Automatic annotation (TrEMBL):
InterPro entries: HRD1_E3_ubiq-ligases (IPR050731), TRC8_N_dom (IPR025754), Znf_RING (IPR001841), Znf_RING-CH (IPR011016), Znf_RING/FYVE/PHD (IPR013083). This is RING finger protein 145. The chain crosses the membrane at residues 48-67, 74-92, 175-195, 207-227, 233-255, 290-308, 328-346, 358-381, 401-425, 432-450. Keywords: Membrane, Metal-binding, Transmembrane, Transmembrane helix, Zinc, Zinc-finger.
Length: 631
């Protein structure tokens, strides 16, 4: 029963939106101008009546749209009863006319019993019901007049109790606005597609089915109501595509772990703002079709970026965790191949469809960057798999991964910088607007300044870590023999090692990876500092002596954490606990999170807000230019 109520709540509100859409398409100005051309006096009499009826129709449909479900059901039952009464009246009228025409010689008059039953059924039995029902239709509202003053009483109480935002969210959920407008748009699109298919005929085979579908879609976004419906439809389609990607990569469990930023909202809002900013509603059908194809191309590019954000950690985790499932590897690689080939195909098609200019070049470059990101991901995955089949680890693996990620991020940064430069030029010397200026400012902050700042910090952090490692003394063969232990980070044998100022031995690469995350020693949590020149020369001494001498100086500098105790027993406990943490954390090569911990790279700016702003800023001016060229 609740399912039936949900369906009724949507289905019974769709006609109101359809009528509002038809009223918006009505050209009242043109109708009054035609009326003025025919008769000036008639225009004077009926002009205000026409406009009042037009606004009254909007008001009535809005009221019906926001009515509670039980009141809508009652209203439709009254309308159905009125239609049945009208149909009964017309049937009776036609019957009487035909009987008068044939001179009362019909078959019903030959059987008096049947005739009496018919007359009794039409007059005697149904008349009280008809009268009562008519009385209810006409006079029922009088019984509610005494209760009208109670309507205004709960409204301030509800607003004060739940606040305006909570009331809006409650109404949004109660009316199921996204589903309602999506159903409305699908009904509109089905009718329009059927009409275009029937009217096109032989032209359909010449133009192609895709062009016919795009034309029907453009016809179904000519009003604000239909554009809002298309926005929700695109959001749901993007959400379905992202969920399908999650299901293909990880099964049902991946769909349950829902990311709030991967719900199709970015794609829908992008389409809505681009359509409003470029004046999509004011165009003719052919112009709207071409512009809508470009906007849908941008939205699809945004969806592909979200799919990359879903696929990238999955494929890297498969490479780093030594997962032996061939089926999971096949699914990840096939998704990467799809994301590699499809953007190139899209860029080729859009370049064949339109004349190449600067903004189209930026649009195509965003697609190519998508393929470049997938290429970098597959290269890192290949390096992980090569290391898996090697007996010894690759020493410079983290450096290779870092520079692969860096090349991708730098190219994205250059594209974003070109967008800002050209957008600023267009705003200063071309068509300027507050909307365009605000988009450029936000885009400059999120996609240029923050990206440059985070990338530079990452570069300095790696330079500082490399400087510390190069300044630390190298352990000799005698020291390694006396130490006779494994690296505390990776738990592998040490053929070469560096010695920290606190006297602990680590692989140079392992310690460098650790210093990318934090600046303290993995064993005693003292701050790792570059070794002075004197201590570097005296590194051949006993590391135990260094371990005895360094805590005092470190304590004086205030860098030692409170968790380290002065007693040797508690120090051993801390060391054991730290080793367990290392074994569960960075030292575990089977962890799926290893790429994020070991190989920090320049943060990606393709977060939903940054991606949305870069897509919006890249294409608004170009879409306006395309609109002028098409017109």
């Amino acid at each position: 029963m609740p399912r039936l109520e949900e369906l009724a709540n949507i289905a019974l509100r769709v006609p109101s939106i359809l009528v509002l859409d038809l009223l918006y398409k009505c050209d009242i100005e043109g109708f009054t101008e035609n009326l003025k051309a025919k008769n000036e006096d008639m225009l004077f009499k009926y002009k205000y009546v026409i406009w009042n009826m037009y606004y009254l129709g909007h008001l009535i449909n809005v009221v019906v749209l926001i009515l509670p479900l039980r009141h809508i059901v009652t209203l439709y039952l009254h309308i159905l009863a009125a239609l049945l009464l009208y149909m009964g009246h017309q049937i009776s009228k036609d019957y009487v006319r035909e009987e008068l025409q044939y001179g009362y010689e019909g078959a019903v008059y030959l059987d008096s019993l049947a005739f009496n039953r018919f007359v009794s059924a039409m007059t005697g039995e149904n008349q009280p019901v008809t009268c009562d029902h008519s009385a209810f239709i006409i006079f029922s509202h009088v019984s509610y007049l005494d209760s009208l003053h109670h309507v205004r009483c709960p409204v301030p109480q509800v607003i004060e109790l739940y606040r305006l935002l909570a009331v809006g969210i409650s109404l949004w959920n109660q009316f199921a606005v996204p589903v309602l407008f999506s159903v409305f748009w699908f009904v509109l699109f089905a009718v329009q597609l059927f009409s275009d298919t029937m009217s096109a005929g032989a032209a359909t085979s010449h133009q192609g089915f895709l062009f016919l579908v795009l034309t029907s879609v453009s016809e179904c976004c000519a009003t604000p109501y239909s554009l809002l419906g298309l926005t929700f439809v695109v959001s749901y389609l993007a959400l379905g595509l992202l969920n399908l990607c999650k299901f293909y990569l990880g099964g049902f469990a991946a769909i349950q772990n829902e990311n709030v930023m991967h719900r199709g909202v970015t794609e829908g809002v992008t389409l809505l703002l681009l359509a409003l900013q470029t004046g999509l509603l004011d165009m003719q059908t052919l112009q709207r079709t071409f512009l809508l194809s470009i906007i849908l191309f941008i939205v699809l590019t945004s969806t592909l970026q979200s799919m990359i954000e879903i696929t990238d950690p999955v494929i890297l985790a498969l490479g780093a965790s030594r997962n032996r499932s061939l089926w999971r590897h096949f699914r990840g690689l096939s998704m990467c191949l799809l994301l590699l080939i499809f953007p190139v195909f899209m860029a080729y098609k859009i370049s064949q469809f339109f004349h190449m200019d600067f903004w189209l070049l930026i649009l195509v470059s965003s697609c190519m960057l998508t393929s470049l990101q997938v290429t970098g991901t597959m290269l890192i995955y290949s390096l992980f798999m090569v290391e898996l089949f090697r007996s010894d680890p690759i020493e410079s693996l983290d450096e290779v991964i870092y520079w692969v990620n860096s090349i991708s991020r730098v190219l994205e940064f250059l594209v974003a910088l070109c967008v800002v430069a050209y957008g600023t030029w267009e705003s200063l010397f071309g068509e300027w607007s507050w909307m365009g200026a605000s988009v450029i400012i936000i885009h400059s902050y999120f996609n240029v300044w923050l990206r440059a700042q985070s990338g530079w910090k990452s570069f300095l952090l790696r330079q500082e870590a490399a400087k510390k490692i190069s300044s630390l003394p190298r352990a000799t063969a005698q020291q390694l023999d006396r130490h006779n232990d494994v690296c505390s980070i990776c738990f592998q044998e040490m053929s070469s090692a560096v010695i920290t100022l606190c006297g602990h031995f680590f692989h140079g690469n392992c310690l460098r990876k650790w210093l990318y995350v934090q600046e303290t020693c993995p064993m005693c949590h003292q701050t790792v500092r570059p070794a002075p020149a004197g201590q570097s020369q005296a590194s051949g001494g006993d590391p135990a002596a260094q371990r005895e001498a360094q805590p005092e100086s470190a304590a004086q500098e205030g860098h030692q954490k409170p968790s380290s105790s002065s007693t040797e027993a508690q120090g051993d406990d801390d060391t054991q606990q730290q080793e367990e943490e290392e074994r569960d954390g960075l030292g575990n090569r089977d962890s799926k999170e290893e790429p994020a911990e070991y190989f920090p790279s320049i943060p990606s700016a393709e977060a939903p807000l940054g991606l949305f702003m870069v897509l919006l800023n890249r294409n608004i001016s170009w879409l306006k230019a395309k609109r002028k060229s098409v017109s």
